[in-house]
Amino acid sequence: MAGSSARRGALWAIGIIVALVVVPIGGWLFVVHQIKERIIETLGPNGSVEEIDVGFGHVTLSRVRLRGPQGWPASDAMRAERIMLDVDMHSLIAKPIHLRSVSVDNYYLSIARSADGRVRLLPGLKETAREADAKSDSKQREAHAREEKLIDRVSFERGSMEFFDSSVQDPPYRVLIGDARATIDHIHLPALTTRTELSMTGSIKGPSHTGNVTWGGWMIIANKDSQTRATLRNVDVATLDPYLLKKAGAKAAVTGGTIDMTVDATVKDYRIHAPGTLTLNHLQISETGNPLDTFLSIPTKAAIAALKDRKEQIKLDFVLDGDLRDPKFSLSESLSKKLAAGFAKALGVSVEGVARGAGDTVRGIGNALKNLLGE
Prior knowledge:
With 375 residues, this protein is of the alpha+beta class. The protein folds into 2 domains: 2-223 and 353-372, no CATH class; 245-349, no CATH class. The chain has 7 helices and 15 strands. The strands form 2 sheets. Strands 1, 2, 3, 4, 5, 6, 7, 8, 9, 10, 11, 12 and 15 form a 13-stranded mixed sheet that branches. Strands 13-14 form a two-stranded antiparallel ribbon. Helix 1 packs across helix 3 (125-134) and helix 3 runs parallel beside helix 7. InterPro entries: AsmA-related (IPR052894), DUF748 (IPR008023). The chain crosses the membrane at residues 12-31. It comes from Caballeronia calidae. This is AsmA family protein. It holds the Pfam family DUF748.
């Protein structure tokens, strides 16, 4: 009798142990299936991923590709050899959902700017995320949208960003930033009312030099308030010619020279205040043979002579102010008028792509992350 009771007790103990093991495993397998399904739905018809590895506390996507839609200037909107998510597993139960890090490695990202100045990246991702949410009932969808999510850091390593800008020419002007590394720290979804720290570094290879670009600071994504610094160092003028001299009315061709620039931009209540410094080094322009050709409203020959007199270096300190919500206000046009007023003061610069375009790009990345997380 005692032996029978002992056997029953042992069987109960084994049953409890099996339940404690099998039930969590079954739940975990369900979670794994849901995660994989969500990722595939979010990527949509233009996206693909060769492998999704879901481990305890991490999700790794291998060889991710998001093809560009019809009319996109590049064949791929984004591709990455690996995307890794480090998940705080306790947060899946206790809430809010907490990602310690999202790491994107060996990547390519194409960014398009339309003729009216709108910046787009990761096209289609937002639409597919909404469609994926629409498959759930409305209450479930609303609850998911309101769900608090914290991301400590998003990092981009060993990659390149390619800009296609239709606001300066058609077909779009192309600028490639190589060895591009970026971090986005402290993302609090869905409110986005706290400061998010941003940084980006990369190189721009020109016909004669390889220059460096940096951009960093903080931004409150919800209201667009920000304080950032952007720098260019040793960048070939010819590489950025459409943003620089041509924008200010230069007709003569640029054949050499580099640019150094620093812009400190502050945005508060959609008003921008952006003091900066521009230095053009060893600028060379060619004579076209046409005596009527000008360089920033000055005859080309006189401009060439002025460059020699100034020891081939021209420095400009400038300040840009305006309301970003005013459709009549344009950073580039405002600055171009100042530059064209006198050769001695400037030889042309447009910081629109630095002071505002970079911010649009980072905001776009933030929106894409919101969609990927199901916001």
